[in-house]
Design a protein that fits this description.
The chain has about 400 residues and is of the alpha/beta class. The chain is built from 13 helices and 17 strands. The strands form four sheets. A seven-stranded mixed β-sheet has the order 4-12-11-10-7-5-6, sandwiched between helices. Strands 1-2-3-15 form a four-stranded mixed β-sheet. A four-stranded antiparallel β-sheet has the order 13-14-17-16, covered by helices on one side.
Length: about 400
């Protein structure tokens, strides 16, 4: 039953806000602690979603809160006209956790991808004015700005917004032959952009051989490889960045979501040789990488470096996969379980939104993507006790659905 307090919030939402997110789920969270959230009426929920893989360290992490409170008493923002201690420290950590390079902080994932696309074209056109074409893959999602949409090979995202940015070609995911044919045929390619786990595309995982051979092919032809780590980065897959599972070193990675642990921030990290292409006045941002955002990044990345966090991701991930595979053997509506670390998808034979709503009613927050894929992405700090409780709720719902 919807409480009076929630009804008032919902009425104000409908009256004053764009309704672009469609039917919101009828909960308003007002408190959080670790992997738990509490709604406007004090009801407790287990968070298996982390706000789309954003709340890396969970909710109200004591050290994170203390660090941000300290920053609030100092400058939050001073602009990129001046040096910024927090920005320099956060950039140093990105390089230590990934590959030697340089970092540009922005505000979001789509803005990080916009910057990557611009950098790739600047690199291509430093070779030839005709080198501007960018390849991406079916099922991808790279954001909702014009560059991000243009790189996204999903018609439902782009529909109604044309004309988009020209110069993008979409290829089948995990099809090396198709990529090779296009690169041989098209002499204008300057870059390839890909996710290693397609989040919005249904937790579809890039084959290791596909990525290794694609990267080698691109290196031979001076074509840049952009790995979109907006959702997979910052410890989500059990390593600092998903590309580290593939034995490659990209030219560019893009980051956001978990990077700020809930504080909005994105980043582009590129090989050092590419950085001069963004010389004075070529690219910029007003808010990107301000003191508060980079204080958040610095704290989150220092936590990611701790072996205990990676061990927790591994332990919890193994447990979830074992439980889900056991469920798959019992419940016919589960087609496949796939993912990496704590980026996990359960492909169903039926639409998943019904299960998401029933889970929410039972105190468990999960998500559905690509219509039939349940997405599990809890905070990386989640405890085994909480995971066991959440998996028990999920299995109870799946068991009831199987009997229905």
């Amino acid at each position: 039953m919807t409480s009076k307090r929630l009804r008032e919030i919902m009425e104000s939402d409908h009256k004053h806000l764009f309704q672009n997110y469609g039917e919101r789920l009828p909960v308003c969270f007002t408190e959080g602690e670790g992997s738990l959230l509490f709604d406007q009426d004090g009801r407790r929920y287990i968070d298996f979603f982390a706000g789309i893989a954003v709340s890396t360290l969970g909710h109200a992490h004591p050290g994170f809160v203390k660090r941000l409170q300290a920053q609030l008493e100092r400058p939050i923002h001073s602009s990129n006209w001046f040096f910024n201690r927090e920005q320099a420290a956060a950039g140093k950590l990105v390089g230590e956790l990934s590959f030697p390079g340089k970092t540009l902080f922005v505000n979001s994932g789509t803005e990080a991808n916009e910057a990557a696309l611009k950098l790739a074209r600047a690199h291509g056109q430093s070779i030839s004015p005709e080198r501007y074409e960018i390849l991406s893959f079916e099922g991808s999602f790279h954001g909702r700005t014009f560059g991000g949409m243009s790189a996204t090979a999903q018609e439902k995202i782009r529909k109604g917004f044309g004309p988009l940015v020209p110069g993008f070609t979409y290829l089948p995911f995990n099809d090396l032959s198709a990529a090779e044919r296009e690169i041989e045929r098209n002499g204008r390619v300057c870059a390839v952009i890909t996710e290693l786990i397609q989040g919005e595309g249904g937790i579809r995982i890039a084959d290791r051989d596909f990525i290794k051979n694609l990267a080698a092919m691109c290196a031979k032809r001076n074509i840049l490889v952009i790995i979109d780590e907006v959702q997979t980065g910052v410890g989500r897959t059990g390593r600092a960045f998903a590309y580290q599972h593939y034995g490659i070193e990209p030219d560019i990675i893009t980051l956001a979501k978990g990077l700020g642990g809930g504080v909005p921030v994105g980043a582009l990290h590129a090989r050092k040789e590419l950085a001069p292409l963004f010389g004075k006045g070529v690219h910029g941002t007003t808010f990107g990488g301000n003191h508060l955002a980079c204080a958040a990044v610095e704290f989150v990345l220092k936590e990611i470096k701790k072996p205990a966090l990676a061990k927790n991701v591994s332990t919890v991930s193994i447990f979830i996969f074992e439980r889900l595979r056991a469920m798959k053997a019992k419940y016919p509506q589960i087609n496949e379980v796939r993912g990496m670390g704590l980026h996990i998808g359960i492909e169903l034979s039926v639409p998943g939104m019904n299960i998401v709503k029933k889970a929410l009613s039972s105190g468990l927050i999960i998500n559905c993507t690509a219509d039939k894929v349940i997405r599990i992405m809890p905070p990386l700090t989640i405890s085994m006790k909480t995971v066991r409780e959440g998996m028990k709720i999920l299995e109870t719902i799946l068991a009831r659905e199987a009997k229905a």
